[in-house]
Backbone:
């Protein structure tokens, strides 16, 4: 409702185009339900505002030091199939399909991003091999060569008994030592695992800015206190009251 109110105010002030970002592929979410929810959401905005919309759709990529650091990444082909299905569903909506321009992130660069995010030191050899093979500016679509990354990864990783799939599309057990476990960001590993288990069971976790401390480890370990609201003032996300790091 708040987004619709903001969009209505923008329309009243002369704006004719709005831009929205969505992420799909989160764990434990049915893709059909997810796609329909996005279509319904865009339809509700269109019904209330008649704004044209540009939407960008990205795919979820698990990252270290998060509760989803243990999950398997979605296969890039499955990701692309889901993106196409969502785009087609939006286009088929007679009410607002013509008013919406859809752009989405290809699953292949996402797989490489996942490799770089959760790989260990062995992935460094892959990066070097890609560079020696002519790979530069691979963050740009016009320079990205998925085949080169696959070939170099196979050459460097398979002799060591691992692969891109092993680093990306594999669920990790809690007992596995992760490549970044020796890096301490303050978050308690057991808390991250419990948060992951809460997600698998669809249990919500309260926001420590407004409720009791979740005991994640950051505040005592990093010397930071998260402000608990409401305090009568305007609060920004993760407002720092005091910090020994300042």
Residues:
């Amino acid at each position: 409702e708040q987004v619709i109110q903001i969009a209505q105010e923008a329309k009243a002030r002369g704006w004719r185009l709005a831009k929205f970002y969505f992420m799909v592929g989160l764990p434990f979410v049915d893709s059909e339900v997810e796609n329909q929810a996005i279509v319904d959401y865009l339809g509700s905005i269109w019904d209330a505002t008649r704004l044209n919309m540009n939407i960008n759709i990205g795919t979820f990529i698990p990252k270290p030091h998060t509760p989803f650091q243990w999950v398997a990444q979605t296969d890039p082909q499955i990701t692309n199939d889901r993106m196409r299905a969502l785009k087609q569903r939006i286009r088929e909506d007679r009410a607002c399909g013509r008013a919406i321009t859809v752009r989405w992130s290809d699953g292949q660069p996402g797989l490489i991003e996942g490799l770089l995010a959760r790989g260990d030191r062995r992935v460094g050899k892959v990066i070097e091999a890609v560079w020696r093979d002519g790979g530069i500016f691979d963050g740009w679509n016009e320079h990205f060569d998925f085949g080169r990354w696959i070939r170099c990864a196979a050459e460097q990783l398979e002799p060591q008994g691992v692969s891109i799939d092993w680093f990306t599309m594999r669920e990790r057990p809690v007992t596995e030592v992760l490549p970044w476990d020796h890096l301490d960001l303050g978050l308690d590993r057991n808390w991250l695992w419990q948060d992951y288990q809460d997600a698998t069971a669809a249990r919500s976790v309260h926001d420590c800015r407004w409720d009791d401390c979740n005991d994640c480890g950051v505040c005592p370990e990093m010397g930071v206190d998260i402000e608990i609201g409401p305090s009568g003032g305007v609060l920004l996300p993760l407002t720092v009251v005091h910090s020994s790091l300042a």
